[in-house]
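Worked Example 4.2. Read the sequence first, then its structure tokens.
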Amino acid sequence: MKWLTIIFVVILIIIVIAANLGLVPSFFSFVYLLPGGDKAGHFILMGLLSFLINSIMRASRVKVFSLDLLKGSLIVIAIVTIEEFSQLFLKFRAFSIIDLFFDYTGIIIFGYFAAYLVNRKRQLEKLNPSD
């Protein structure tokens, strides 16, 4: 799972750099042709990142005020927020609160799906301990 996460992060970094240089619209033009394609892309890409990070972190949690939150999701939210706001200063990018909403939604949903699977695996390991 760690290698898959590393590969996925490298792919995302390449996509962000290409977008910052104004190359993504020509490379991913099919995404923009689909109704809601860009928003679905944000939801899925950031959701998958959250899923992978939370999986390798074994769905570890942290208390923030009275909320019990996934550390991996918080890390991804911080990075995604910084990246989206950085678009305010880039020629080929445009900040979008709607993109951020779809990022956050994917991060939360996929993060808690990872937590569900990690917890399910823990339960099964307790029932069937290996030698």
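Now turn to a second chain, presented in exactly the same format:
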Amino acid sequence: MTATDRPLSKLVHLVHRYLIWVIVASYLVAAALPGLGLAIRHLGLGYVDVFGNRLSLSLPQMMLATLLFNAGLGVRALDLARIFSRPWLGSSI
């Protein structure tokens, strides 16, 4: 089984390949139907208890989390290790 045959690798590849088009489409929908964005702004998805605190989850928060998670998938582990090994400003990678 090669690395591209694994289910997680396929999922990561699909997300990287199509997420930008989903974002572009969402901007087009937002331009055409701005009321839809205002309607989902306050759409709640429930609550989560974390260390005794109740956190509310909303659709915009989950959309942002998905976007940031996808960006994190594109980070190479070696580059991340270099950032932590040289955290000062002006370090060249």
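Notes for the reader: The radius of gyration is 18 Å. The beta strands are 44-50, 53-58.
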